[in-house]
Amino acid sequence: MTDTHRYDAIIVGGGHNGLVNGAYLAKAGMKTLILEQRHLVGGAAITEELYPGFSFTTFSYALGLIRPEVVRELELVKHGFNPIYMPTSFAPMENGDYLMLGPDRDENIREIMRHSPRDADAMDRYEHDVGRILQLMYPLSDRIPPDIFGKTAEDAADVAWLLGHLGSAEKKVIHDAVRLITGSISDFLDDYFESEILKGYLAASSTTGTKVGPMSAGSGLVSLMMMLGEHDGHLGSWSFHKGGNGGLTQVMARAAEAFGAEIRLDSHVDHVITKDGQASGVALQDGTEFHADVVVSALDPRQTFTKLVNPRELPGDLVESIDRYQFNGTSAKVNFALDGVPRYPTLGDRTDQYRGFVSIAPSIEYLERAYDASKYGWYSERPYLDNCFQSFLDPDMAPPGKHVMSCFVSYAPYHLKGSDWDTERNNLGDTVQATIESFFPGFGDLVLHREVVTPLDIERVVGLSEGNIYAGDYLLPQMYFFRPAPGWSQYRTPIDGYYQCGSGTHPGGCVTGAPGRLASQQILKDRLNKS
Amino acid sequence: MVKTTPFHPRLTELNTTQLWAHWAGHLSAAQYDIAGKHEYFGVRNAVGFFDASPLYKFEIIGRDAEAFLAGVLARDIRTCRPGHAQYTIWCDDAGYVLEDGVVFRHSANEFLLTAAEPNLSFLQNQIGSMQVSIDDVSAQYAMLAVQGPRSRAVIADLAPEVNELGYFGHAQTKIAGSEVTVSRTGFTGDLGFELRIPADNALPVLDAVMEAGEPHRMRPFGDQALNLLRIEAGLPLIGVEFTSSRYSYNEHERFTPDELGLGWMLKGIDDDTRPFIGRRAIINERATGSSRWTTVGLAVDGNAFESLFYDAGLIPPKDEPPASWETMLYDDQGERAGYATSYAYSPMMQTQIGIARVRPELTAIGTTIHVEQTVNHVYTTVPAAVTRMPFFNPERKTSMT
User: Are B318 and A233 a contacting pair at CB < 8 A?
Assistant: First the structure.
């Protein structure tokens, strides 16, 4: 062992949370090493030129939930942080009509009134009520969850803070929050709206990444998690990062390196080295060892607790919790290189509808039927599609006049009944393309290249178990002080010096940086207490 | 009757909002798109075009033209070679700034000066016995600013010589059969170009530029986007950062170049061979240290700003148009530190930024300044740090590739 292999902290996994965690630790003065198995950092947030001249956001494709404090504290602006806000959201309908919303409230009201005059003021009420819920939730997502099973004075103080915070909210806000978190998004929206297209559009995010349908209890929670973002004071708004989400993780890598972290690519960690319940480093698959008193897993809970360490060294109840922790990947991607701009017949030659998400979610019933297939081990015949054309706002993503289209697909369950994803990959691509074609006739003629990403591909390439994009379903027993397991939600593990910072920890998935940030706070606090 | 610019027939087709501002007696689009802020994003990430035709343009020609401008403008025109341009100011005899503008040197004896306000009689009154003629040629030319990272690709498609054009360089070219002066200038702090086009040819040139811009996602942008862009670029705007000294009612309204942060233009002020208007007063200001203010950039502490609002039960307001009034500033002791003349949330900087005038002892980078902020109808303050300007200063603005 040479001194060059000795660090204060080693992070396993150079996804966005690994980079954020490493950057914070390096900023605090720790000699930090970030190990990434692939030839590039970013994990699921990468941009790749999979077809000459076209930049694909292979997996994660939009930015909405990144915590502003991560941007500021890691000085990401200095390293090229560059969100580009989406001016529109477009939802085509099966009868050729559409719903198009933008940044102007009054214009949106007029657009909603086309579909239902009643829903016009309902939208204001809905947005205000949801805003109040988000206001209640932000402080929870920006803090380490309390350990409700803990016995220390600090644990008691954390629980008291939580009760105080909830107790200070108005009763309507608490009630709305509970209705949204525990109920279905369909019921929640029915309280406000009657328009099918508006409800479909608003319910669509509930189908993302978790195996629930919009009529299932728990779909409200998924929706809420997808709204917990903020851009420039606009709650729940979304953007593209310049150069795609891979552009963002490159910014994070530059920030981490500027604080002194070292990033080592093509370094597949085989296991965490432990002795007497204490972590002391990691061993790569090629046998190389790196040593540190702090080892942080940015991988998902299954990898963290059953692959990187020996589960026999862990408490039985934790192993059982991880064993029954639901992954259930249900998401796929189809990425297209396009020769031009698709046409939406009703809008003629207009193209402004492609400046943001193009959501194929014409009604809640459409979404629920898309979900039905997944219950029985198959992918949707008419899937929910969340399309975006990053090249409309960022021309560097495609050659002049051409476009990239990222198409998120739900539902595509990891476990297929009677077939497998290597067999079905192309069929899924055809299903998705046929669905797009039915809304945008002539779409197929524009396709220069198609890249189908199945849940199995997500698992194989990124390492996310069962292709679950959140590193674990958004289900109430897997959130907050239960994420990833009761008693282990504070980023520590039963192995001294071994921590977790991935999306399988609170507050969860999407490109937020929050787990990486909160884990760093815990690590630095423990380090201070030890010294 | 308010005038329209030579581009107007096309711009009114493009302006889906039909929101127009008035600028120098002309209709000027406030925003073309209901998503006005996205015009700003278009410029920062692709390319946008802006109708700058209402600018006043003065042609200054003659044997003594250089000597004339050397005596009127505070920045030394003698250092500006033909084919180059300078951002410049002119002052009164007391050393206060009258106005700013850009001067283009076409040859040894031919110049063109652009300005936001009429200046013909002022300029002509300074001629004395010099051999120089000055004409207001404002209406003869349309001006089109093409700005953003893709601007070079767009213009190079029509006039390849712009690939060789350095920052503040200009050249004669032909676009759509028309003579065009293309310069690497602009008011956005980004890579960008401006085209000066004979008014009669404005539309064919615009059409050619729009066609070249289409594959690069080019879009028009209006006054609102320009205002945010120029604040990020740290560029002062007459009527906002300063009032022309000639029209000031008292000493609080007039400022010296050093007070406006434009002292960098005064390189060579000690050279006795160039006695420009205001020079002696400025030398005296520097000798006696009588500057009252220093212009600095401010960047608000975003965590503190958000806490202020979240703790008060409010959503932090960020996405507001730049404040159209001055924002008061305080030092650590709560004493008046100065005021911000422009103050806005910057998407590129991800926090509120301000162009501010502070007491000269508060100018060190990183100095904490407390910015006035109303929360729940009560005045409070939020901390900000003195920072360098331009806030946003990409390498592409000046680089040759």
Answer: yes
Chosen domain end from A207, A229, A251: A229
Identify whether B300 is part of a domain: yes
Percent of chain B with pLDDT over 90: 95
Distance from the Cα of residue B112 to its chain's centroid: 17
Chain B contact probe: residue of A55, A66, A69, A72 with most B CBs at under 10 A = A72
Decide: B193 and B162 in contact? Cβ < 8 Å.
yes
CATH number of the domain within which A483 lies: 3.50.50.60
- What number of other Cβ atoms are within 10 A of residue B374's Cβ? 9
Instruction: Establish if A317 belongs to a structural domain.
Output: yes
pTM: 0.95
In order of A237, A480, B338, the CA distances from A103 in angstroms are 10, 32, 35
For residue B131, tell me if it sits in a domain: no
pLDDT tens, residue by residue, B169-202: 999 999 999 999 999 999 999 999 999 999 999 9
Query: Looking at this predicted complex, what is its ipTM?
Result: 0.92
CB contact under 8 A, B315 and A401: no
Q: Considering only alpha carbons, which residue of chain A is nearest residue B48? A: A393
- Work out whether the CA dihedral B144, B149, B155, B157 comes out positive or negative: negative
Distance in Å, alpha carbon of A498 to nearest chain B alpha carbon: 30
What is d(CA B103, CA B86) in angstroms, rounded to the nearest whole number? 5
For A51-73, the DSSP string reads ETTEEE--S---B----HHHHHH
Residue A1 pLDDT: 47
Residue A34 placed within a domain: yes
Q: Which of A229, A261, A294 is the last residue of a domain?
A: A229
A87: Cβ contacts below 8 Å, ≥ 6 apart: A102, A103, A352, A355, A356, B33, B35, B37, B38
pLDDT for residue A2: 52
Domain that holds residue A16: 3-43+69-79+243-326+471-530
CA B367, CA B332: separation in Å to the nearest integer? 10
- Is residue B269 in some structural domain? no
pLDDT in tens, A173-212: 999 999 999 999 999 999 999 999 999 999 999 999 999 9
The one-character DSSP state at A42 is: B
Read off the pLDDT of residues B279-314 as tens digits, 9 standing for 90 and up: 999 999 999 999 999 999 999 999 999 999 999 999
Q: Which two tokens stand for residue A326?
A: 């639901």
Residue at B91 is within a domain:
no
